[in-house]
């Protein structure tokens, strides 16, 4: 266990940051699943709306450094491509 005050503070802050990151990643995964479910169901407009919400969550997390920005951009691109391939 840490004896120095700054080390104790870093432990507290890293626990808090880990919790925030876990919640952020969880919301991203949930929103991605919603997009994928609407794509499977074939609802193009609903998929676009769900993608807009998911993309917002993904880019916020990428900007904060929770998840790699290029990985999130690639995921958005692939989801967008699969939405475009849907029939009306």
Order of helices and strands: HHH
Q: What class would the helix/strand composition place it in?
A: mainly alpha
Beta-strand proportion: under 5%
Number of helical elements: 3
Overall mean confidence score, pLDDT? 95
Q: What Rg, in angstroms, do the CA atoms define?
A: 17 Å
Give the fraction of residues assigned to helices. Answer: over 70%
List keywords for this structure.
88 residues, mainly alpha, Methane Monooxygenase Hydroxylase, Chain G, domain 1, 84% helix, 0% strand
Summarize the structure.
The chain has 88 residues and is an all-alpha fold. It has a single domain, classed as Up-down Bundle (Methane Monooxygenase Hydroxylase, Chain G, domain 1), CATH 1.20.58.110.
Structural account:
- This protein has 88 residues and is mainly alpha-helical.
- The protein has a single domain (5-84), classed as Methane Monooxygenase Hydroxylase, Chain G, domain 1 (Up-down Bundle).
- Helix content is 84%, strand content 0%.
- The chain is built from three helices and no strands.
- The termini are far apart.
- The mean pLDDT is 95.
SSE layout and pairings?
Elements: H1 5-41, H2 44-64, H3 69-84
